[in-house]
Amino acid sequence: MVYDVIVLGGGTSGIGAAIYAARFNLKILLLTKAKTGLIATTHVIENYPGIKTATGPNFMNMFYDHLSVYKDNVETVEEEAIDATKKEKNYIIKTSKGSYEGKTIIFAMGSEHRKLNVPGEKEFANKGVSYCATCDGPLFKDKLVSVIGGADSSAKEALFLTQHAKKVYIIYRREKIRPEPINLKRVEQKVKEGKIEIINNTNVTEIKGEAFVNKVILDKPYKGNKELELGGVFIAIGWIPKSDLAAKLGVKLDKSKNIIVDRYAATNIPGIFAAGDITDDPFKQVITGTAQGVAAAFGAFNYIRESE
Question: How much is the pTM?
Answer without folding.
Answer: 0.84
